[in-house]
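General statements about sequence and structure are easier to judge against a single worked case. When preparing material for the folding task, we compiled for one chain both its residues and its backbone structure tokens. The amino acid sequence and the backbone structure tokens for this protein are reproduced below:
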Amino acid sequence: MELRAEMAGDYKIENFYEPGYDTFRPSGDSPYMGKNGFIPARQLGLTTDPMTANQIAALSQALNQGISVMEIGNLSQAVFETIPKQHFAEMKRKAKLAGAELTMHAPIQGTDPSGFGERGYDETNRLAVERHLKDVIDKAAEMDDKGNLPITIHGSNTYGSTSKYITEEDGSRKKVIDQLIAVDKQTGEIRPLKEDLKYYPQPRFDKKTGEVAGFSVEKKYSPEEQLDIANTTLWEDQIDKIIFQKVNVDNIISKIPKEAQMMSLQAAEDPEFFKRLGPNEKNLVLATQSAQSYLEDVRKSLNGTFSKAYELGNENQRKALDEISKEFAQDLYGIDPNRIGRKDLTEEERQTIAYHSADIQNQANAIQVFAEKLKEINPHMLESIEDFSIKKASETFSNVALYAYDKKGEKAPALSLENLYQGMGFSQGEDLRNLVLRSRGEFEKKLMEQKGLSKSDAKKISEKLIGVTFDVGHLNMSRKYGFNEKELIEETKPIKEFVNKVHLTDNFGFNDTHLPPGMGNVPIRALVEALGEKAAKAIKINEVGGWFQQFKSSPFPQILEAYGSPVYSTAKGPYWSQAGGFQQSYMEGYGQILPQINYQRFGVGFSQLPQNLGGSLQPSAGGRMGGGDF
């Protein structure tokens, strides 16, 4: 039976009498993601309020709601350290009594595992973060009941390069770097590089006619090409400064006869000899000594540049540097470099060394040849922040994992490195994969070298203690860089095998708003299903701090509804997505029509309404203005 009531304005009520349970359907306003039993309630975790140190009270409130998985943590390191150590053991007892499981999120503010701070990279910063994470391990160990409690740690808390998708002329989609963040490997300073268009004063020819169409040529440089150009320019500038210094020495030497160099050597050995020289001879000796001082400055600059190349270069470049250094010694001393310093030098070799060493022009020429060869090495003083950070962060994570292993062995809390959103480090699936593999590799080396473990045992432990927290909301923020749903799913492939924890959260692709699932446009179901078996087994945390902050209530009912969780543990239904029929919330449209309280108050058929409103109830003495009921 259908009763249609028309009221003032456009307000209408249809289907006055509710249908039976078997016809329940989620309303259009429901956050339901379209699959009953997608995630059972027992697997759905929640974060505590990340702004408070009273995590024990926040945990109690959550356990009272029947939540069985909870993530403990704070945004701020200072707030995290305000939690008394006894609270971690007490939270373990509470969770155990309630049959719940605990996990942890390490603080994020001012804690970049690579060592970046406000002024760029500093090894002191990295060591401070490493020590802080070891403190987090201590507290997680107090809270860990079963072992291998996963601790979510941001893979980076500093700048990162960004990627975008562009559509090619043939309609295909291509992923490219939008902005590359470069790091000066020596100073730790960062430099953003974006695509750039440059113009050159050259004839421009028409492609069809072949005739000159103008006298300016444009060339587009990608961020990667700009990085190569910047590296070449920086390195060549340093070498050119040395060569320029050497040219100044050449100008001085050209005015000094060979005899003056010999007099300079003798004067250095015998001060009285200099006093006996005439004025012109003294000037020549002083000029020679000046040239030698200039040349010594050039040599020092060259040594510093060589040291920089050796420090920043890769293994092959270091081999090349060894070779040109050997050739430099040959030019400088005139004998086989392997003979230099030997006690059995022949008299001829000694004389050759003395002659070449005394010859300023020979030294200057040797320095120039060496500088030109050094220019070809180019150790790339700038590199992408991902390449730079992966070396530093993997050192931090491997040391922290080793500390955890020392504390509790194979049952130690596990590091779970989280993907960040674009603009932060390790936002791309491949970058995070590389970080995990490098961290595991460094950890395995330490286990073998320091603990005497076999390679296979070390590998097994590293896989257990270093994994990934996959945050679907962070990934979704790539939408503002042109990613579509299919391209978001592609980002799961490189890291799916490492996942030991999943952060479930929603947003609209522009800000990390931490809404409950189904309230934004994150393709949560598609992403979780793309992760496969690992995600099915992993701890799942609904990271909904934004809801706590803005709406001051628990979104757990909406979370249960969104994932189509069954109401009963038998998993036979009904499902929370059908809750509109037996509970009310703002997500169920109008809610129940004519609830029982109406009949209790107004009677069947509204007979308890006053006569002047169509009912049979007699009014009490006095009018409405005089104290009567109606």
In short: The radius of gyration is 37 Å. The mean pLDDT is 87. The longest helix spans residues 279-312. Residues 155 and 417 are 5 Å apart (CA to CA).
